[in-house]
């Protein structure tokens, strides 16, 4: 059987720590030998893997206290993937042909410890839905903030993988009004027309390092947009950006507002630094007098969320109550460019690279 197994496969490797934001020249697609699976390993041929902005921190040389380790030059990138089992050890519940999820994307073939593979849930209408970032949005909204009937909810970075589902989830949980932020009028229109946002605000800044007059004007304009969209303030914030948008959200907080921080893209996607810091100025006095709770969300702290989310996501998808915006990029050779385009804000919703299978 081992003679029939592939001997090589391609993977995306980091060639150098990027100077500024990652570019395709910082990566290479290398063909590497595939050792035979060990006694507790599964060989998986990947079908799709996720492209996500957090990779900027992992490759930027500034990852510290992150749930997963940073990536050094010469190492392969990694991330959520869906693939087909090619070979599994005897006694395993997995069999060749089974579809599984794991965290060794960014390569054609992955040798994955059996314990780190999970069978694809057939309840989802398309296996690629396992690569959605909706569990982070769902976990933050159910475990940290709660959503009560009548709440006004603000989602920053609403056109990304998390945000494009977060607003819809908030509505399904009972929110009365859902407001999103994004970087372009085109995306703002799609948030309203396709995803049911009541209003979408165009933030004129993406990085936390802006301090000039243009940046201050953009911040003022955004604060005015938010005040117009939520004249009585906001009850819930699901924040993926940090930076000036978080500052404005604190200013708009109603009594007892609940804030969940899911991302910090203002710092992670800043051209300066390595993506490992996201400083922000907030009004501590307002946090106190308004009784605002502000918590960070990571999935590792809430291991029960994934299964619960998958069940609800499957039901909502099949009933047509939620949409899953998805951009499919064909071929591993295009993966480095896909990451650059996502960081530049050129994509909408979840972005995956698809690998040929037959």
From TrEMBL:
<feature type="domain" description="Enoyl reductase (ER)">
    <location>
        <begin position="20"/>
        <end position="353"/>
    </location>
</feature>
<dbReference type="InterPro" id="IPR051397">
    <property type="entry name" value="Zn-ADH-like_protein"/>
</dbReference>
<dbReference type="InterPro" id="IPR013149">
    <property type="entry name" value="ADH-like_C"/>
</dbReference>
<dbReference type="InterPro" id="IPR041694">
    <property type="entry name" value="ADH_N_2"/>
</dbReference>
<dbReference type="InterPro" id="IPR011032">
    <property type="entry name" value="GroES-like_sf"/>
</dbReference>
<dbReference type="InterPro" id="IPR036291">
    <property type="entry name" value="NAD(P)-bd_dom_sf"/>
</dbReference>
<dbReference type="InterPro" id="IPR020843">
    <property type="entry name" value="ER"/>
</dbReference>
<dbReference type="InterPro" id="IPR002364">
    <property type="entry name" value="Quin_OxRdtase/zeta-crystal_CS"/>
</dbReference>
<protein>
    <submittedName>
        <fullName>MDR family NADP-dependent oxidoreductase</fullName>
    </submittedName>
</protein>
<dbReference type="Pfam" id="PF16884">
    <property type="entry name" value="ADH_N_2"/>
</dbReference>
<dbReference type="Pfam" id="PF00107">
    <property type="entry name" value="ADH_zinc_N"/>
</dbReference>
């Amino acid at each position: 059987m081992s003679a029939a197994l592939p001997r090589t496969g391609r993977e995306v490797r980091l060639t150098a720590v990027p100077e500024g934001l990652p570019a395709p020249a910082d990566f290479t697609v290398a063909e590497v030998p595939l050792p035979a699976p060990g006694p507790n390993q599964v060989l998986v041929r990947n079908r799709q893997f996720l492209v996500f902005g957090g990779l900027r921190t992992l490759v930027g040389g500034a990852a510290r206290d992150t749930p997963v380790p940073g990536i050094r030059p010469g190492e392969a990138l990694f991330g959520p993937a869906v693939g087909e089992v090619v070979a599994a050890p005897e006694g395993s519940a997995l069999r060749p042909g089974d579809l599984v999820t794991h965290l060794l994307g960014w390569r054609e073939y992955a040798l994955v410890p059996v314990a780190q593979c999970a069978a694809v849930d057939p309840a989802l209408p398309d296996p690629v839905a396992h690569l959605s970032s909706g569990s982070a949005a769902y976990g933050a909204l159910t475990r940290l903030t709660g959503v009560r009937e009548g709440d006004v909810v603000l989602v920053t970075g609403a056109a990304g993988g998390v945000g494009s589902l977060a607003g819809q989830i908030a509505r399904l949980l009972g929110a009365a009004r859902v407001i999103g932020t994004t970087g372009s009028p085109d995306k703002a229109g799609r948030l309203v027309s396709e995803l049911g946002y009541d209003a979408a605000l165009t933030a004129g800044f993406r990085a936390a390092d802006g301090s000039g007059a243009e940046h201050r004007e953009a911040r003022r304009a955004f604060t005015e947009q938010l005040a117009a969209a939520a004249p009585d303030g906001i009850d819930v914030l699901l924040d993926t950006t940090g930076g000036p948008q978080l500052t404005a959200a604190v200013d708009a907080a109603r009594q007892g507002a609940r804030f969940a921080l899911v991302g910090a893209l203002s710092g992670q996607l800043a051209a300066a630094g390595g993506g490992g810091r996201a400083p922000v100025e907030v009004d501590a006095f307002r946090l106190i007098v308004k009784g605002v709770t502000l918590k960070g969300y990571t999935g590792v702290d809430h291991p029960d969320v994934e299964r619960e989310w998958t069940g609800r996501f499957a039901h909502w998808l099949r009933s047509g109550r939620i949409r899953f915006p998805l951009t499919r990029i064909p071929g591993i050779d295009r993966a480095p460019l896909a990451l650059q385009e996502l960081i530049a804000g050129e994509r909408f919703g979840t972005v995956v690279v698809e690998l040929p299978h037959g």
